[in-house]
Amino acid sequence: MPDTNTPYFTGQWWKRKDVKRHAVLWVILTAFIGYVGTEVQVRAMGAPASETMENVINLMRIFTWAASPVAAFAAAIAIGALMGKRHYGDNPPPESEHAIRNSPRAIALWIVVSALMCLFALVVGLIALQKDDARLLDAKAIHINVVGQQWAWNYDYPGSAGVRSEVLHLPVDQPVVFHVTSKDVKHSFWLVQLGVKIDANPGQFTETSVTPNKIGTFDIRCAELCGLLHAYMQNKVIVESKADYEAWLASQPDTGKTTWVEEKAAA
Ligand SMILES: [Cu+2]
């Protein structure tokens, strides 16, 4: 017969040793998962070069810190169970019928908290998406065609009568709309520090936009496994002053090429 004076039976579950152990683990793991999921990742991606990327980082911080207690709770139970006293036998230990498991209050709290967290993520996410869509309609934006192929990106510039480059040039503080497609398989166009990533699908155009706000050289990568040399499908974007951008555009040979899509339509 178990001792019914222990916290297992008096309803004072918070006094239980294993509950305390799990609580400590929970706090430590929340901090660890939150920190790795935000600061370590943010640092690996480099300083943001657009407001879009600043928003991405903010969203990442909010979502990760909101989710890390949940992930940490499951991890704390898994790790805590390994650390605790083992129970051997065919039947559950007598103390397994405890207050939390059968408490309607605990179950209701858990359901309400998770539902609120899902709702929060949905609303914040929809607001962020809506901001991106608004930029696509900016009348001042310049439009650049982006074509992915195994294993490089090509850019066609507007109003340039056929300037095509492999390194992307952009004027600073100027909204840009990218029309992205692929010549062969699926790729994903990723401007790392500008916070833009969108699929490049063959036979289809996807649109995305950004306003770079920092002069410098930033990374472009393919973010969709697209074949043998996928890992090498990376290049640079040079964000420069409007004058430098226009000088560069004027210095490029006029290939007379139309955009790849127009080429295909003409063939
Ligand atoms: Cu790829």
UniProtKB/TrEMBL annotation:
GO molecular function: copper ion binding; cytochrome-c oxidase activity
GO annotation (BP), single: ATP synthesis coupled electron transport
UniProt keyword annotations, A-Z: Copper, Electron transport, Membrane, Metal-binding, Transmembrane, Transmembrane helix, Transport
Record carries keyword RNA-binding: no
Transmembrane among keywords: yes
A Pfam cross-reference name: COX2
UniProt main location, coarse: membrane
Regions crossing the membrane: 23-42, 62-84, 105-129
Residue ranges of every copy of the Cytochrome oxidase subunit II copper A binding domain listed in the record: 139-251
GO cellular component, one term: membrane
Entry's localization field: Membrane
Family the entry assigns: Belongs to the cytochrome c oxidase subunit 2 family.
Protein's UniProt name: Unannotated protein
Native source organism of the sequence: freshwater metagenome
